[in-house]
Amino acid sequence: MKTVRLAFLLALLGSKAAFAAGSGSARAAGEGGAGASPILSGSIHEIISRLSALVAQYGLNLIGALAIFVVGRWVAKSVSSLLSKALTKAKVDATLVPFIENLAYTGMLVFIIIAALAKLGVQTASVVAVLGAAGLAVGLALQGSLANFASGVLLLVFKPFRVGDYVEISGVGGTVQAIHVFNTVLNDPNNIRVIVPNGQVTSGNILNYTINGTRRIDLTASVSYDDDLRKTRQVIESVLAAEPRILPDPAPVVAVKEMADSSVDFAVRPWVKVPDYWSVYFDLTEKLKTALEENGMTIPFTTQEIVVKTDTSAASVLKSA
């Protein structure tokens, strides 16, 4: 507001100076001067008159430009604030709300500055052309970053995963720590921080192991061909029934999966909650082996029969040696 007042005073002083200059020149012409040169006096008055006219003209333009800038900036802040409140009320991701707010405010502020420059008499067409060329050059130079930026916006809007989910993206598995506009931060099972560019996240498959709340454990229990398969199934089912962390729905699956070279393989597939996955996986592996051995089942080792054929003459030479 101080700047606006200063510009208004400059315009007012310019108008008064122009009026005083006109009156002074008239008086000087009437009185004939008091020892001063008429040519010099006329030149000074002409310069003062022109300066006063310029100050009066551009002072008003300056006031208009400042008014456009001040009022426009206030409107831009108000609109961006209302936009932020609307996005928050619509439960848009908290990371995306301030970014959209700042982007909207910056865009409106650019138009306000261009309008203020036009009020001052600046040729805004050339300014817009320069800004467009600069934007194109920056866009080409930052092509990869802009792709990551666009992918980050998509991730924040569509939310294929959230902070705390265990995901596998771009061949890397880990728990999501943060989702930024340009990259996604993971912690892998070895507690190694992995930063994945968002462009790679959206360009490939995303495996989210957490979002559904449950996971299936896939185990294999192998017994000998001589063992009773019905009894083996009962032993496996009893081990599963004794584990309270296994979910009753969907029901666990126990079925003969394969008749391998030296064993009969059972598929053991119970369902658990996501936080219990690895603890149940390790406990069941140990309990199944112990239960099968206690009930007389044999867990066979892989065996391979090798037959060696030799030539008769070569064998006799070896024996004589």
Commentary on this structure:
It is built from 9 helices and 10 strands. The chain is α+β, with helices and mostly antiparallel strands and 321 residues long. It folds into 3 domains: 136 residues, Helix Hairpins (Orthogonal Bundle), CATH 1.10.287; 50 residues, SH3 type barrels, CATH 2.30.30; 81 residues, Alpha-Beta Plaits (2-Layer Sandwich). The strands form 3 sheets. Strands 4-3-2-1-5 form a 5-stranded antiparallel sheet. Helix 1 runs antiparallel to helix 2 and helix 2 runs antiparallel to helix 3. The termini are far apart. About 10% of the residues have low confidence.
Considering the chains and any ligands shown, give keywords for the structure:
321 residues, alpha+beta, Helix Hairpins, SH3 type barrels, Alpha-Beta Plaits, 3-stranded antiparallel sheet
Chain-wise SSE layout:
Layout: H1 2-31, H2 38-89, H3 96-119, H4 124-141, H5 143-158, E1 166-169, E2 172-179, E3 183-187, E4 193-197, H6 198-203, E5 206-208, E6 214-216, E7 219-223, H7 229-241, E8 253-259, E9 264-269, E10 271-273, H8 277-294, H9 312-320
Antiparallel strand pairs: 1-2, 1-5, 2-3, 3-4, 6-10, 7-9, 8-9
Helix pairs in contact: 1-2, 2-3, 7-8
